[in-house]
Amino acid sequence: MNCIESVFDISEKFMEDPSYVYIDYKKINEVASLMNESSIKKFDPAPHDLTREEIRKECYLQLLGGSINYYYWYGKHNIKPNDCSSGKMFDIINKASWEYDIYSDKFRDYVQWCYIRERFPLLEERIKHLNEVYLYGEDFIDILLNDKKEEIIHLMEYMICLLPGYASDMFLKRASLFFLMLNRKFGWFEKDLHSLHIPADYQVPKMFNYFKCFSYDPILYKKIDRSELIGKGSLMECEIRAATVLVAKKLCKITGWDVSDVDAWFWLRRRKCDRPFHLTVTTDY
After folding, report:
1. Residues 32 and 94 in one domain
2. pTM score, two decimals?
3. Are residues 182 and 203 in the same domain?
4. Contact residues for 117 (Cβ-Cβ < 8 A; gap 6+)
5. Is residue 284 domain-resident?
6. d(Cα 223, Cα 201) in Å, to the nearest integer?
7. Residues 6 or more apart whose Cβ sits within 8 Å of residue 269
8. What is the helix (H) or strand (E) element at residue 8, kind and residue range?
């Protein structure tokens, strides 16, 4: 079983007899019809005249940012010191890349200093994952550029072997998002997105619940509504994420959309729902 198949297999096992999250397949069909009546958000690929080095640089920055694209709040979903967010995290990396050679120690030190100064949560973990990319990320990018026509499955397995920080999540959220981002930026892997699972994070399950694709047990619903922490690896958290993976797979099948389109459709509508997302302290998402 390859790494992507394992995500679907784990998800199915969690949802065989759920205790806290209940998928509504009838509602999924209704939401799929709503999706088909609306437009798909397509991302404009980068210009075709980029040099190999420019593409290599962008891939490396995506890998670097993706390695620490997790957990931005303290205590409640809307408490973020200095407005720390994924957007700000990538802004720091991109701005640093204008000033320094991205493969240099100066770039590394400056980026880490910025995250410390801005007081991003889980700083020790973020620095550990950044250093992992500084050490082995270039090797993976070389494999990626030489074999970008390979199936995502093979490339992801190279990735998680070289960069175990990406492998630590049983649902491989940040790993799947990395390949979605390259698809959106360069149009790569278009024929292979059908094999990929959705990045199961905070926002997409919130929206699946908002659209009633799945419901929560009252105990879990109250925890989310009261901003109570849900343990990483707990049955509650695993069922939320497993249900997210399976609902997205079903929506892809019904609509004919790929996982990138499904992910974007719900994520871009996240502000329609003013309820909090579930709170889990994690480096997975």
Report:
1. no
2. 0.95
3. no
4. none
5. no
6. 17
7. 207
8. helix 3-14
Helix (H, G, I), strand (E, B) or coil at 215: strand
Q: Is residue 259 part of a domain?
A: yes
Which of 231, 281, 285 lies closest to 122, judged by CA? 281
SS3 279: strand
Q: Which tokens in the block code for residue 149?
A: 């026509």
The percent of the chain in helix, strand and coil, each rounded to the nearest 5, is: 65, 5, 35
3-class DSSP state for residue 210?
Answer: helix
Which alpha helices (DSSP H) does 74-172 contain, by range? 86-99, 105-117, 123-146, 152-162, 164-167
Which domain does 180 fall in, by range? 52-194
Residue type, 1: M
Tell me the two tokens of residue 48: 């075709």
Domain boundary among 194, 222, 255: 194
Token reading at 147: 């074999």
Looking at the fold, whether 114 and 181 belong to one and the same domain comes out as: yes
Closest to 178 (Cα-Cα) out of 52, 44, 281, 70: 70
Residues 216 and 21 sit within 8 Å (Cβ to Cβ): yes
Decide if 102 contacts 114 (C-beta within 8 A).
Answer: no
Q: Give yes or no for a contact between 277 and 77, defined as CB atoms under 8 angstroms apart.
A: yes
Instruction: Encode the chain (285 residues) as per-residue pLDDT tens digits.
Output: 999 999 999 999 999 999 999 999 999 999 999 999 997 777 777 777 899 999 999 999 999 999 999 999 999 999 998 999 999 999 999 999 999 999 999 999 999 999 999 999 999 999 999 999 999 999 999 999 987 666 899 999 999 999 999 999 999 999 999 999 999 999 999 888 989 999 999 999 999 999 999 999 999 999 999 999 999 999 999 999 999 999 999 999 999 999 999 999 999 999 999 999 999 999 999
